[in-house]
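Structure tokens please, single chain.
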Amino acid sequence: MNSRRPTTTLWRPTGPRELDLVRELDWRAWPPRLPEQPIFYPVLNEDYAVRIARDWNVRHDGAGFVTRFEADTGFLGRYPVRQAGGKTILELWVPAEELDEFNAHIVGDIEVVHEFR
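Here you go.
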């Protein structure tokens, strides 16, 4: 019998500075938010993450990355899905003060799946 809990795949568009911090955390956690970042928002589909990384991060940071990671599905239920635009533009809004607990529910490593320059 497999006792693994179900996981949900999430994506996170990010710039080079945040990615460096994830690397420093051994690809297992997201860094604390800056004071002007009250929420952490992983997204629910890869296409949306690609658009942000390619169209926003590259323009503002010179590079954009799309990361993919798994998180405990049961835990994620506390965060309602937010529609940030069209029907496929879906995010979870994690309050900055809950990020440590969110990180504790990441299963496996955070991995880079796309890079744009």
